[in-house]
Design a protein that fits this description.
mainly beta, disordered N terminus, 16 strands, 16-stranded antiparallel β-barrel, Porin
Length: 333
């Protein structure tokens, strides 16, 4: 019955008025110990306008799961290595425009990371810093409101579960997320500049979990620059932060060169000590420097190709960098 409903829904989408879109991410990677082709992501989107005031967007995501049989088969006696590709709903959003602003309902995109991701510009190569280091989910269930106060000053406020789009609500608390952005919101396509602030807070049984992101970007004369500082605090005084900067230059019409540097400290209170370090307990506390550099070739038919080099260094490895060579591919339709 579920399969039948899904087929009927897909058929309905195809013949209804709206737009079908998709994007595919895959790559070839090589390190000192392994080389492989990898399927990273497949998105299928469908959206349209019901009226002048009402529109909708549905987004399906195909990616690998690390949940495994421990959850799927309800057996927690062992840890599964299952990483099969799964098909799941990422966004089911209804937008309602009014004279006061725009309301969003359902499984909606978060307002925490979008501008920073556009300033970076290459989601198919690497996630935005907030997404990569787990500071924010990219979608969640709830309601939102956004409006422009003056030219180029946009405000948005979300009230969501706080669990993200992969898990149901597990407690009585919710997340509030506020975004204020001034300037051009899509520097990946348009010249201009922007600056903004994101603040989120979610109550817990003790102290709230908060996140602050301050960001800015510039695009012009063939150059695009982006930068952000992110800080997250949790109960017990735990604090983590990210500094991420990126630069992109258009060498020619269909060829860009880029570099990005991330400095991530997952626990500012922790300092590496060789004598007391225990990998099982302390590995996730190590600060790191991550560098990625390469070129992007924009081909015909919605295809982009990016050969690039990635280097990461952790505080317990002195100045030694782990190297990875990649060729990332993107196909849009």
């Amino acid at each position: 019955m579920k399969k039948l409903l899904m087929v009927l829904s897909i058929i309905g989408f195809i013949f209804a008025e709206g737009k079908i879109s998709g994007v595919t991410y895959f790559d070839f990677s090589a390190t000192n110990t392994k080389s492989a082709f990898n399927f990273e992501r497949q998105y299928f989107g469908y959206g349209g306008e019901v009226s002048d005031q009402v529109s909708f967007k549905i987004l399906f995501d195909v990616g690998r799961t690390n949940v495994g049989a421990a959850i799927i088969e309800k057996d927690t006696s062992y840890k599964s290595e299952d990483t099969r590709l799964v098909f799941f709903l990422k966004k089911a959003q209804i937008n309602y425009k009014t004279t006061f602003g725009k309301f969003n309902f359902g499984l909606i995109g978060m307002n925490t990371y979008g501008i920073q991701e556009s300033n970076w510009g290459y989601r198919f190569i690497e996630k935005s810093a907030l997404d990569k280091y787990g500071f924010s989910a990219t979608a969640d269930i709830g309601v939102g409101f956004s409006r422009s106060l003056i030219d180029n000053l946009n405000l948005s406020l979300l009230f969501v579960n706080g669990e993200g789009y992969k898990k149901p609500q597990g407690d009585e608390y919710h997340k509030i997320s506020f975004n204020a952005t001034y300037g051009e919101g899509n520097l990946n396509k348009n010249d201009g500049y922007n600056a903004g602030l994101v603040y989120t807070t979610e109550s817990t049984d003790t102290d709230p979990t908060t996140m602050v992101s301050v960001f800015g970007g510039f695009a012009g004369m063939g150059l695009r620059l982006g930068g952000e500082y992110d800080m997250r605090t949790k109960a017990g005084g735990y604090e983590a932060n990210i500094i991420s900067i990126s630069a992109n230059y258009g060498v020619r019409e269909n060829l860009d060169a880029f570099v990005r540097i991330d400095m991530h400290d997952p626990d500012t209170k922790y300092t590496y000590d060789k004598e007391t370090y225990a990998e099982e307990d302390d590995k996730d506390k190590l600060s790191s420097n991550y560098i990625i550099a390469g070129i992007v070739l924009a081909c015909d038919g919605g295809i982009s190709v990016s050969p690039n080099l990635r280097m990461v260094n952790y505080e317990n490895t002195d100045n030694d960098f782990e190297m990875e060579y990649k060729v990332n591919f993107q196909f849009k339709f």
